[in-house]
Specification:
This protein is of the alpha/beta class. It has a single domain, classed as Aldolase class I (TIM Barrel). Helices cover 35% and strands 16% of the residues. The chain has an 8-stranded parallel beta barrel with strand order 1-2-3-4-5-6-7-8, surrounded by 4 helices. The two termini are 26 Å apart. The structure holds phosphoenolpyruvate. The site of phosphoenolpyruvate has 14 residues, from strand 8.
């Protein structure tokens, strides 16, 4: 398992359900990897069918998955297990993305089970949490985040083996972001006021692009970013990796 504490910033590309062989060729032709500092951990999470192709082109970047099965093995048609991911060079895996929580009805308990299986397979889970706009409007953000974070953490979780991504749902794919002050304050709350995750690495996700990445990543309490849409554009993601 990689030593996450040795990285200064962590930058995750979540390709979601996007990509093709042609896309991959063009993407890696354009992606600039030579100016990335050695203490930056860059992770690309493509659909699993592109793992092998991506792995041969990643150089200093790491391979991540977007989800895994909550089952270890057995009669679960269509599923991919954590140990199968590991056998395919996977070092990280996003779990509990809001799209999985909402489109596929995943709950904190599912996420906790998946994260536990990932740890058993020596893959670092990136656990996503985030509030809806309605919850934000009625000042429930802190309460919701605390509940999600505490209930999604597997027992063997520690600051050495789990990363948490704060992704306000209303900021994902919308072009809207909280203010820098708000992002920093929420990360400060998560890092310092929730005993169970003291010292963990926390990423911000939600409409990060090449223009705002640098100022978000330089916030005192932010350890990196999780990028959706902008990670599909090789020139933008190259800029973010350098930010
Ligand atoms: C995401 O999918 O986790 C995400 C943050 O998407 P976007 O960057 O497009 O808002």
């Amino acid at each position: 398992m990689l030593k996450i504490k040795e990285f200064n910033k962590i930058i995750v590309a979540n390709w979601k359900l996007n990509g093709s062989n042609d896309f991959l060729e063009a993407y890696f032709d354009k992606l600039v990897l030579k100016d990335i500092d050695s203490d930056i951990c860059g992770i690309i999470c493509p659909p699993i069918t592109y793992f092998q192709k991506c792995h041969s082109k990643l150089h200093s970047l790491y391979l991540g998955a977007q989800d895994c099965s909550k089952f270890k093995d057995g009669a679960y048609t269509g599923e991919i297990s954590a140990s199968m991911l590991k056998e395919n060079n996977c070092e990280f895996c996003i779990v509990g993305h809001s799209e999985r929580r909402h489109e596929f009805n995943e709950n904190n308990e599912d996420i906790k089970i998946k994260a536990g299986l990932l740890l058993d397979a020596k893959i670092i889970p990136i656990i996503c949490i985030g509030e809806t706009l309605e919850q934000k409007k009625i000042n429930k953000t802190q309460e919701i985040l605390k509940e999600q974070v505490i209930n999604s953490l597997p027992q063997k979780s520690s600051k050495e083996n789990v990363i948490i991504a704060y992704e306000p749902i209303w900021a994902i794919g919308t072009g809207m972001t909280p203010s820098l002050q708000e992002i920093n304050n929420i990360h400060e709350y998560l890092k310092k006021d929730i005993e169970e995750v003291e010292g963990y690495k926390f990423l911000y996700g939600g409409s990060v692009n090449s223009e705002n990445a640098s100022e978000i990543m330089n916030l005192e309490n932010v350890d990196g970013v999780l990028v959706g849409g902008a990670s599909l554009k090789a020139d933008q993601f190259s800029e973010i990796l350098k930010a």
